[in-house]
Amino acid sequence: MTSSSSDPYDVILDARGLICPMPVLKAKKALRDVPTGGVLKVMATDPGSVADMKSFCEMTGNKLISSIQEDDVFIYFIEKSEV
Q1: Catalytic residue among 10, 14, 16, 20
Q2: Which of 30, 59, 55 is nearest to 42 (CA)?
Q3: In this structure, are residues 44 and 54 in contact, taking their beta carbons and an 8 Å threshold?
Q4: Does 51 have pLDDT greater than 90?
Q5: Are 28 and 56 in contact (CB under 8 A)?
Q6: Does residue 57 carry a catalytic annotation?
Q7: Model confidence over 56-75: pLDDT tens digits?
Q8: If pLDDT is split at 50, 70 and 90, which confidence band does 53 have?
Q9: Which residues have a Cβ under 8 Å from the Cβ of 29 and sit 6 or more positions away?
Q10: 43 exposed, middle or buried (CB, 10 Å; 0-12, 13-18, 19+)?
C-alpha cells in the first residue's frame, strides 16, 4: 500500500484482532519489506501491544516515531533502523 502526504508510511500492517505476541511478531516480519529509514504503520487492538511495541523498538534499535489510539485501535509508526 502506498503512503499519502498526511499519513506517510512505506508498509502497513493490520494486526487488529491479534493478541500478544502476534502483533510484534508480525511487525518484525513486516519490517523486512521496509527500506532502511522507511516507516511501518501497524494497527493493533491488543492493549498489551502498547508496551510490546515500545520494548520491541528498544530491543531492535528501530525508532517508534509515534503511538496513538483511535477508539479501540492502537496505531504505531516505526522507522526501520540500519541494524
Answers
A1: 20
A2: 30
A3: no
A4: yes
A5: yes
A6: no
A7: 999 999 999 999 999 999 99
A8: very high
A9: none
A10: middle
